[in-house]
Amino acid sequence: MLMDLKVVLVEPLYQGNVGSVARAMKNFGFSDLVLVNPCKPEVEARAMSSHAWDLLQNATVVSSLEGAIEDSSIVIGTTGITGLKFDEHLRIPPFSPREVRERLSGMDGNVAVLFGREDQGFSREELSLCDMIMTIPTSEVYPVMNLSHAVAVVLYELSELTTGDLPLADAFDVRLLHEHIAELLDDIDYPEHKKEKTRLMIKRIFGRACLLEREVQTLRGILRKIQQHIRE
Amino acid sequence: MLMDLKVVLVEPLYQGNVGSVARAMKNFGFSDLVLVNPCKPEVEARAMSSHAWDLLQNATVVSSLEGAIEDSSIVIGTTGITGLKFDEHLRIPPFSPREVRERLSGMDGNVAVLFGREDQGFSREELSLCDMIMTIPTSEVYPVMNLSHAVAVVLYELSELTTGDLPLADAFDVRLLHEHIAELLDDIDYPEHKKEKTRLMIKRIFGRACLLEREVQTLRGILRKIQQHIRE
């Protein structure tokens, strides 16, 4: 069974690419496409989508990335290696598509795979919304892939994903967990200037662990107990 | 180390695709592109190749597929599932890109990966030149991939191939082996109408076995001894 996976294109610039992405999705059996502030898909998009024009017509268009991923248990950002040095803590550790497949194997839930703008990729803020960062291993000489090629490679790999009966935690519960952690950092007077990085680190740890529903409940139980002791 | 691998496009129709293929090749660190009777790569090919225009300019242009693969130890034909029922024995067993990677792992030699025309794929005769058939697992609903997407997926997988120190048999020696087998079929009065299929079957068996140099020599030694006994 295919994982319940949606492809999210963040502000794609070229409609030909959007059409090509739709085709690659249909080739690998995926149909849920979300476009965040996209260019308008017209004649060229239709031509490049070939027999996947239906998929493109049924794409969801939203105005913010947050809206696109609010129901996703795991949010995976796909990035090139460009800019790696500038925001290492946002991108490390990056996983290959194969590693992502292996990590998600046996689980079941809603996964969002994000692809950034053709020229600029993601903003820092967008990267910080991701639970996992995925990078396709490419040549150092010319690492910048065409957007639809990247989608084809990622979906080729993830279409082989064997889902199982381990339910990934609900997106809403994971959000509560992270808000709970933020609360706890406040409670313990954690240094203000370290808070963002630390919250991001924890997001990445839990992200790559692919938290299950019962694990989130247990973690939140622990947090509640810690808070009770602190506040007493 | 990357396997010594060339990409062969057989009579590509659209220069935009040829340019996109060059880009995908450079993304994954491959540079050896061979074009068999291609459309002329001009402005659109240049645009789609992006920073891989050099690779496209250095492509080898040939007029026959035989010429393109004469130095290749292993010839892998990439096909969609279209037409599978019409010429099953030509295409079976097809391997996924991952299976091809696993089979070639630890070996070293010259590999040619063939991609057919955008509309018609390969002819029967072209398919019969292949040692192995590779098919990207796609959705039954819409299996027909864009050419450059298929190249990107295959090279993504094969760029992860770990070569080793087991030398694949030289293309010339493999050809001698097959000619030797054909000779033997003549010697034993093998039914004429079965010869082609049987030779193809043997080609596929040895193809998926990825014969090593010393194995070819041993096999040819056995054939020689058989022939001596028959002819005595």
The overall number of domains of chain A is 2
Task: Return the CATH architecture of the largest domain in chain A.
Answer: 3-Layer(aba) Sandwich
Looking at the structure, the CATH topology of the largest domain in chain A is Alpha/beta knot
What summary fits the major beta sheet of chain A? 7 strands, parallel
Number of distinct helices of chain A:
11
Spatial strand sequence of the major β-sheet of chain A: 3-2-1-7-4-8-5
From N to C, what is the helix and strand string of chain A? EHEHHEHEHEHEEHEHEHHH
Strand tally of chain A is 9
Top CATH class of the largest domain in chain A: Alpha Beta
Structural class of chain A: alpha/beta
Largest interface, C-beta closer than 8 angstroms, per-chain residues: A-B, 30 and 30 residues
Helix content of chain A: 40-55%
Strand content of chain A: 15-25%
InterPro entries (chains A, B): Alpha/beta_knot_MTases, RNA_MeTrfase_TrmJ/LasT, SpoU_MeTrfase, tRNA_m1G_MTases_N
Keywords (chains A, B): Methyltransferase, S-adenosyl-L-methionine, Transferase
Protein name (chains A, B): RNA methyltransferase
Domain tRNA/rRNA methyltransferase SpoU type (chains A, B): 5-156
Question: What would the keywords be for this entry?
Answer:
homodimer, about 230 residues, alpha/beta, Alpha/beta knot, 2 domains, seven-stranded parallel sheet, two-stranded parallel sheet, 9 strands, about 50% helix
Describe this structure in words.
The structure is a homodimer of 232-residue chains. Chain A is α/β, with parallel strands linked by helices and 232 residues long. Chain A is built from 11 helices and 9 strands. In chain A, helix 1 runs parallel beside helix 2, helix 1 packs parallel to helix 8 and helix 6 runs parallel beside helix 8. The radius of gyration of chain A is 18 Å and the shape is globular. The model of chain A has no long low-confidence stretch (mean pLDDT 90). Chains A, B: This is RNA methyltransferase. Chains A, B: It holds the Pfam family SpoU_methylase. Chains A, B: One of its GO terms (molecular function) is RNA binding. Chains A, B: Belongs to the class IV-like SAM-binding methyltransferase superfamily. RNA methyltransferase TrmH family.
